[in-house]
Write a structure and sequence with these properties.
- The complex is a heterodimer of chains A (306) and B (286).
- Chain A is built from 15 helices and 2 strands.
- In chain A, helix 12 crosses helix 13.
- The model of chain A has no long low-confidence stretch (mean pLDDT 87).
- Chain A starts with a helix and ends in a 6-residue tail after the last helix.
- With 306 residues, chain A is an all-alpha fold.
- Helices cover 77% and strands 1% of the residues of chain A.
- Chain A has a two-stranded antiparallel sheet.
- Chain A has a domain at 27-234.
- Chain A has helices at 4-22, 25-50, 58-74, 79-101, 106-126, 128-131, 145-173, 175-185, 187-192, 197-223, 228-231, 234-247, 254-268, 277-291, 296-300; strands at residues 137-138, 225-226.
- Chain B has a domain at 16-212.
- Helices cover 77% and strands 3% of the residues of chain B.
- Chain B has 11 helices and 2 strands; from the N terminus they run ααααββααααααα.
- Chain B has a two-stranded antiparallel ribbon.
- In chain B, a hairpin with a 2-residue loop joins strand 1 (126-129) and strand 2 (132-135).
- In chain B, helix 6 packs across helix 8.
- The relative contact order of chain B is 0.21.
- The model of chain B has no long low-confidence stretch (mean pLDDT 85).
- The chains are: A mainly alpha (306), B mainly alpha (286).
Chain lengths: 306, 286
């Protein structure tokens, strides 16, 4: 019985992986987005779900990954190496920064994490000599034609998603997850009983950055053009936590379910109402907070996932 | 004299910034809610004032009062009907809720008003103080911003409602036991926050071009000012606002206008790390 969700997850991965052989390029693109957002949501879950810190810096990590990946690639590095390099840069950045801003709690942390997105965006648009400024940056288009490129990026995103998922399972079962849950419930008490809160929080923050960085870099290579406003999008930074809240924060499967539900909803409903895109997102948030506070997973299991 | 001008610009900006932040800071301090709609409230106030000026020929300094009243009603309703239900829940919940409400408001403002930058042109002439040039419309906006901030301070200090708001900020439960209707005080506080934002928007429309795409910028400034000045007090917002005005003015002068905003944010991040209670803030307001 306990294995069922894992079997379902494996089937879901297989279905996404099989999409290029069964469906059109449009479906493959949606499958890529499903994998990408699942990985972003799983990443946010480490700091926002397990540790309960209201982090809104997803877009900061994503954008930093996109820019560092693109710059490395343009400097002549092999694509894969650039992605790994971007993940490393983002993780180091998050670990150093987390050390400073994770001492804050509640609103102050939330604000610092949002400000981070703004600061990086302003730097990216001001430092024109290095980042291309407001005009953005072109990235080399991968050779091989659209079908081939579509598959490459689908499998890249799926690999990152799988890695994020495995990391989540390990954290969930291990010491780190236990410590983070203690921090979420009562940080002072956790500190008192000997949880090294600073180290645990920094680890969670860095974990939430590593996959975002890799995804950002892969995304930059995929779309072959990045700009400050797209990379450090305040919408992205809000969407990802909402996905996790939709699925069930602090759980292994919640982020996967939430992001899948969100992306499919976006593609089927929102695509028809382009003018009201943000308003619909707002309404979903309001409904979610009032009527579904524990996320979709709560509907399935009585044990709950709060 | 060059620096005289830079300082004068900074002070004029700073007075308006103080007015921008004071409502935001009040809501944050009393309700413990970060109101992500604050930027949109400012722009809404600005737009209402602009259209009153364009179509009905109402002077913006006159339409300020009805605009502020409309915003108060809107804020009161939003708090009473929606935010009050989740006000005791964790930060993530309340912040995400106001973020979501902001998306709705923003979307409809964008559709209704389009993103064209609009500015009220009053042309009151200007004052020349020994080489320092002060456009009179800006001076008037600055004066009114200071007056509004002062009025809010007086209301909080002396009126019954004001004392109730301060009491709820100090201790919600004790205030409730003394017979204060906390939910009503919350709604009034949020209404005042929106009112100040609306009034500021009216003033801002005289000074800057107003467009929906700067809502985030105004919200960011409110953050920065609260952190620089310290949270939940009128003097804190005043100090923070004027400090940010001067910082931006000087940074703009030395490094160029793009860096002005960046300088504000960087100073905020450093202050958050070094001194999270702000320059004049007290400890104890999480």
């Amino acid at each position: 019985m306990k294995r069922l969700p894992y079997v379902l997850f494996a089937l879901w991965m297989l279905a996404l992986a099989a999409s290029p052989f069964l469906a059109s390029n449009y479906i493959v693109k949606i499958a890529t987005f499903l994998a990408m957002y699942a990985a972003l949501a799983l990443s946010w879950n480490f700091i926002g779900g397990y540790a309960g810190y209201p982090s809104f810096s997803t877009a900061a990590f994503f954008g930093l990954g996109a820019y560092s990946g693109a710059l490395m690639q343009n400097a002549g590095l092999w694509v894969g190496a650039a992605w790994v390099g971007a993940a490393i840069v983002t993780t180091v950045f998050a670990a150093l920064l987390g050390f400073a801003i994770l001492r804050m709690r509640g609103h102050y942390f939330a604000i610092a994490s949002i400000a981070l997105v703004e600061v990086l965006m302003l730097i990216a648009s001001t430092w024109a000599g290095f980042t291309g400024g407001g005009e953005g940056l072109n990235v080399k288009i991968m050779p091989g034609g659209p079908n081939y490129i579509g598959r490459v990026f689908l499998y890249t995103m799926l690999c990152i998603m799988l890695a994020a998922f495995i990391a989540t399972v390990l954290v969930d079962r291990g010491r780190l997850g236990f410590g983070l849950r203690c921090i979420q419930q009562n940080e002072d008490a956790a500190d008192m009983v000997g949880v090294d809160v600073t180290r645990y929080k920094t680890a969670a923050f860095a974990l939430s950055a590593v996959f975002c960085g890799a995804i950002g870099a892969a995304y930059a290579s995929w779309v072959a053009y990045i700009s400050p406003v797209d990379s450090f999008s305040i919408l992205l930074t809000l969407k990802v936590p909402v996905m996790v809240l939709l699925g069930g924060p602090g759980t292994v499967f919640g982020p996967v379910i939430g992001s899948a539900a969100f992306v499919l909803m976006e593609e089927t409903i929102w695509a028809k109402f382009l003018d009201y895109h943000q308003a619909i997102l707002g309404v979903i948030i309001v409904l979610l907070i009032f009527f579904l506070p524990g996320g979709l997973l709560r509907l399935f299991s009585r044990r709950g996932a709060a | 004299m060059e620096y005289g001008q830079v300082l004068a610009n900074g002070l004029m900006l700073g007075a308006i910034y103080a007015c921008i932040a004071v409502g935001f800071s009040l809501v944050w301090g009393v309700l413990n809610v970060i109101n992500m709609m604050h930027g949109s409230f400012i722009i809404l106030g600005g737009y209402l004032t602009f259209f009153a000026w364009l179509h009905l020929k109402v002077n913006p300094f006159v339409s300020l009062l009805p605009v502020a009243a409309v915003l108060f009603a809107l804020g009161y309703l939003i708090q009473y009907a929606l935010i009050n239900r989740v006000v005791t829940r964790p930060v993530l919940t309340t912040l995400t809720l106001t973020f979501g409400l902001d998306m709705i408001l923003y979307n409809f403002m964008n559709l209704g008003f389009t993103a064209t930058p609009r500015r009220i042109v009053l042309d009151l002439g200007r004052l020349d103080l020994g080489g320092v040039i002060l456009p009179l419309d800006r001076v008037a906006a600055m004066g009114l911003a200071l007056v509004l901030t002062g009025v809010l301070y007086a209301v909080l200090r002396t009126s019954r409602t004001g004392r109730a708001i301060v009491a709820v900020r100090m201790d919600r439960d004790a205030a409730a036991l003394m017979g204060i209707r906390v939910n009503r005080v919350y709604a009034i506080t949020f209404g005042i926050g929106a009112l100040m934002a609306g009034a500021c928007g009216a003033l801002a429309a005289v000074v800057f071009p107003i467009t929906t795409s700067v809502t985030g910028l105004f919200l960011g400034k409110a953050f920065v000012i609260c952190v620089i000045g310290g949270l939940g007090s009128v003097p804190g917002a005043l100090v923070g606002g004027i400090a940010l005005g001067l910082i931006e003015s000087l940074a703009g002068h030395w490094l160029g206008p793009q860096s002005a905003i960046l300088a504000g944010f960087l100073i905020m991040l450093v202050l958050l790390i070094v001194r999270p209670t702000g320059l004049v803030g007290k400890k104890g307001y999480e």
